[in-house]
Design brief:
Length: 361
């Protein structure tokens, strides 16, 4: 007798046919390539930055790249003791008034390097005499041409509208730059473990991701992170919005307690990004709140006790330092968004109303 494939098998098959699926699984390879081929350029950039001696760092980006900038706020703050501000490009494009950037390192982050508002901040900083750096997948883009320096992501063509491998290579580029600026050998060694850690994360999640289809009816949820992984919460929420049309709101665990925690009720989905590190305990405390209120919990963690308590545990490998954990922690969120979208019959490669390159002013 002919049998009908199960829903989970149909979902897996349709997911594997997408560019999003392929590009998520390409991440270990492109991260390894950036580490091997990009290190000399990153070291040269670090030397130029040291010679310039910036007082602070100004980062300009949009969308996914803005989430990479959030990571850099914590990275440069913790590892390099530099204050980091996220630029408001509208100051340049709408109000024709740039802040004083002469003493700043201004970094433009964009996968395509095309958006005029991001380029405008780099141009303003360079005109004032500040040092400018582009981080982009296109070294010939307007952004790269406008900046003094450029770190190429070398991620290859990304076909899916939802960015995955260009996001994790942006994170890695920031991490490599921070490590080169400190000159700490142990940080360099830690960077080399990242591709295998991401590959292990993909493998671990492949055994549990079928359970993500149980959330196919979800219309809203919150994603919670803290510290380095505040950026991860933002990026996962963005992926869910653009691929699955879920109203996903990102929060710091501290900010969630200042009012929005009132949202949490029975069956309300709460995703917790809780790798080991200083941000861990604050996020895990919300498991108590969620359990008391009968919420449904999804946990991304390397701590077995946390994974066991959650309704859906998405495992990361142990041993990855907290400052590098966002490169791994975002991957279960990418896979969750991919699985959710295909289970709902949505093509994650072509979200409605979106294009790969968005030009804003």
């Amino acid at each position: 007798m002919m049998t009908t494939p199960s829903t989970s098998l149909r979902t897996a098959s349709s997911a594997e046919a997408t560019a999003l699926h392929r590009e998520i699984h390409e991440q270990p390879k492109v991260l390894a390539k950036l580490l091997s081929e990009g290190w000399p350029t990153v070291c040269e950039v670090a030397q130029r930055i040291a010679a310039f001696g910036p007082v602070w760092v100004n980062i300009v980006a949009r969308g996914t790249s803005d989430n990479a900038a959030r990571y850099a706020q914590y990275l440069f703050g913790v590892n390099n003791q530099l204050g980091v501000a996220l630029a408001a490009p509208s100051l340049c494009t709408l109000y024709n008034t740039a802040p004083r950037l002469k003493e700043a390192l201004t970094i433009g982050v964009s996968q395509s390097g095309q958006s005029p508002d991001v380029v405008s901040v780099i141009e303003a900083a360079r005109k004032q005499g500040g040092l400018t750096l582009a981080i982009s997948n296109d070294p010939d883009s307007p952004l790269a041409r406008a900046a003094h320096l450029c770190i190429e992501l070398n991620a290859g063509c990304e076909q899916s509208v939802a960015a995955t491998k260009t996001y994790t290579t942006e994170l890695l580029a920031f991490a490599m730059l921070s490590a080169a600026m400190t000159g700490h050998g142990e940080q360099r060694e830690a960077l080399l473990t990242v591709p295998n850690a991401v590959e292990s994360t993909i493998a671990a999640c492949s055994t549990t991701m079928g359970n993500a289809t149980h959330y196919g009816h979800v219309r809203r949820l919150v994603v919670v992170g803290r510290g380095f992984n505040f950026a991860t919460a933002h990026e996962i929420a963005l992926k869910l919005k653009e691929t699955s049309y879920v109203l996903a709101e990102p929060y710091s665990s501290a900010d969630l307690l200042h009012g929005p925690v009132a949202l949490i009720e029975r069956d309300f989905p709460v995703m917790l990004v809780a790798p080991s590190g200083r941000g861990h305990d604050s996020v895990v405390e919300l498991l108590d709140v969620a359990e008391q209120r009968g919420a449904r919990t999804i946990a991304i963690s390397d701590v077995p006790a946390v994974l066991e308590r959650a309704d859906l545990g998405l495992a990361m490998p142990k041993g990855i330092p907290e400052w590098l954990s966002p490169i791994c922690a975002v991957v279960p969120g990418q896979l969750f968004a991919e699985t959710l979208s295909t289970s709902k019959g949505i093509n994650p490669d072509k979200p409605r109303g979106l294009s790969k390159v968005t030009l804003t002013r």
